[in-house]
Structure formats: C-alpha cells, structure tokens
C-alpha cells in the first residue's frame, strides 16, 4: 500500500463505487475525496467534510447523467457509517457541534478555524484541484 492518493493501491480507500469511481480519505486526514480513474491514475473530483453533503452530491450526480456515481445499498451503508463531520486534529469538535450531536439536529455549523495557519500547502492543494 502507498500514501500516494493517485495510486491504485492507496491505503485509505473508504469505498469503491465501481471500476472508475472511488471515495478516499485524503492523505492529510482533513476530508473525503471523490476520485475518478483517468488513464492509469486516480484524479480528485470533489472534496467533502460533511458526510450527508457527500452522499447528496453522489445522488445528485447519479441522477443527472453520471451513473458511475450511483450508490449501491452496500456503498450507501458504508458512507452512512462515516462520522457526520470529518474531524481532524486541527478541527476538533466544538461545544456547539457536541450539543448539536446530542440534540440530533443537523444544522450546518460553519467551520471558522479552517485552514489552520500552518497548513497553506494543504489548503492550496484542495483549492487548486
């Protein structure tokens, strides 16, 4: 296994939708990435921190002419098992998030402390893709 996200044997694949579409955890552990196979390399298409937004995106794309984004029941179950919000060391849950989790509400709490000051390389990579 490798840590290169464009590789076929990348070590942190969340789910493989089909031969040309997969979802991975990014190497820096800040988000989930939807990737498609282009030639012999995987290309990042979109970046997600919220599980429900990721699932909604895949459903939307599948219903609008991209059948490779369609989720099987097994794939949907795997994605629904992900945390509601991708948590990282630089973005720990806030008191508001914890209260929201206890109340069962899904208000979209803005991420105000991202990107951290020391992660410009990570942030620029995510924005450039």
Overview of this structure, please?
The chain is of the alpha+beta class and about 130 residues long. It is built from four helices and four strands. It is globular.
Key terms for this structure?
129 residues; alpha+beta; 4-stranded antiparallel β-sheet; globular; disordered C terminus
Main sheet characteristics: 4 strands, antiparallel
Oligomer: single chain
The whole-angstrom Rg is: 15 Å
Instruction: Bin the helical content.
Output: 25-40%
Which structural category fits the helices and strands?
Answer: alpha+beta
Strand order in the sheet with the most strands = 1-2-3-4
| Percent of residues in β-strands | 15-25%
Secondary-structure element pattern, one letter each: EEEEHHHH
Contiguous uncertain segments of 5+ residues? 105-129
Overall form:
globular
- Our count of helices gives 4
Q: What integer is the average pLDDT?
A: 78
DSSP summary, beta strand count: 4
> Cα distance, first to last residue?
23 Å
Q: What's the short story on this structure?
A:
By secondary structure, the chain is of the alpha+beta class. It has helices spanning 51-63, 73-80, 95-103, 120-128, and strands at residues 13-18, 21-25, 32-38, 41-48.
Question: Layout of helices and strands, plus pairs?
Answer:
Layout: E1 13-18, E2 21-25, E3 32-38, E4 41-48, H1 51-63, H2 73-80, H3 95-103, H4 120-128
